[in-house]
Model the fold of this input.
Amino acid sequence: MNSSSGRSAAKRQLSRRSVLQGIGFGVSALAFGLSARNKALAAEVAAAKKGEGVFWRESTMDVLTAIHTRRSYRSFTGAPVKPQDMQEILSAGMGAPSAKDARPWHFVVLETEKSLELIERSIPLMSYAAKAGAALLVCVDIVKDPGEPLAYVSGAVCCQNMWLALTGLGYGAVWVNVFPEEQRMNAWKELAKLPAHVVPLCLMVIGVPDVRLPAENRFDPKLVHQETW
Ligand SMILES: Cc1cc2nc3c(=O)[nH]c(=O)nc-3n(C[C@H](O)[C@H](O)[C@H](O)COP(=O)(O)O)c2cc1C
Done:
């Protein structure tokens, strides 16, 4: 090896080392940033516990497990949804993000045998509703700014929050369309006595499942596009 090729090999090694050092520094800065954020969050939770009390309970299920084990359940044991769990599910829904922070949602809680049987009679293929613990008629206020169609999008985000929360609490649920089916919308507007500016989006039928559906790995790299399609 002559002296100039020796020098450039040394330069390459040096620049490789500085890139690696740079990455190492970046990773530790990120870890430091994350642990500082986690500490700040833990302090906020502790303060909330000491003060007015937190408005959620700690779940033993982590968020990714809830996401990946959530399924649509259409078969239930008949066990009720406990009142404190229903409160938790609704609180999760109301904690959802929404366009313009409008929080356009309203919920009609259906828990009586009569109401659950009404669902069974009013919508085809709903024979399982009578054995659900409860159902939520999730509605959106379409007059609140920004109105339609973002009210529906925010409503859907709220439903997903509730779906994940109830999964974490050991329940199962299914989303049953009301919107945009005109006939169902009119029927539920009347049954639930909704005001004119409130649209029924869906029924979240909730209960204790009598079977457990498997988690599915739906990750598909073909759906991911880098920078452009
Ligand atoms: C916007 C939306 C509308 C849906 N409508 C219905 C419905 O009317 N009836 C029903 O049984 N399931 C309905 N589902 C549930 C889907 O069929 C279900 O999420 C899908 O088949 C995937 O299965 P999984 O939820 O078990 O992962 C709906 C889900 C979403 C998100």
